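Q: May I have one protein plus its fold?
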Amino acid sequence: MSQLGERLRAARESQGISLSQAAAETRILQRYLVALEDGDYQNLPGDVYARGFIRNYAAFLGLPADELIDLYRQERGRTDPIRIVPATSNPRVYGCVAPSLVGVFFVVLALVGVTYLVLSATNRIGENAQFAAMPTATAPPVPSPLPTVPPEATPAPLPVTPTVAVAGREAEPSPTPTREPEAPIVLEVRIDPGDNPGSWLEIKTDGESVFRRVLGPGRSVRFTARRSVSVRAGNAAVVTVVINDQERRLGTRPGEVVTFEWPP
């Protein structure tokens, strides 16, 4: 087994991730992940694809991608050469005498434009002749002004009844809209410091995924939610969850996979 494959398999198993789960998360076929972990580079589609697989798989497991790619090059010892395939036939050379399709297209376009201009000018001449032949319309007689009607008397405004305040009783204030109190759930996930590979986490707030990757040792993330939170952790022995200032340890065994939900 190659050194590259041993490092990839050890990182995956320490985080409690199966090959099928890794293939689904990285979108790499499971047989290619098996070939990388077994050092079977002949079953990979090519050198360029293999380096891309190693880079994506290393980022998913929290490993240094450049270091693993250098290790892959050392173990494989070569890269696929670039092949230059000669052309099957010589390009055709058109003579100057042969008609060009582009030239024919422009000639046809010019003929269509000239025809359009001639027809437009003919239509304008016909319209002007018809307009000149139309008789001039006489203006209608102006009607005599209507007799002036005296304006009606403006009605008097209605009396306004004053508001009488009752002695010893204050006016009731208008109700004000009440806002729903906000009571968010505060979630913090911490990884123990020290010599450990960290943990792969998937965190959901109110049913939506907000975090999905490896969190290294000594690191922490913080989120808020209104209804619920969910934490799925690989290598849960190094993970501590804090819900509204209440701490809880997720696991006790290395490599253990635990799912935590709040409210329970």
User: Anything to note?
Assistant: The longest strand covers residues 208-215.
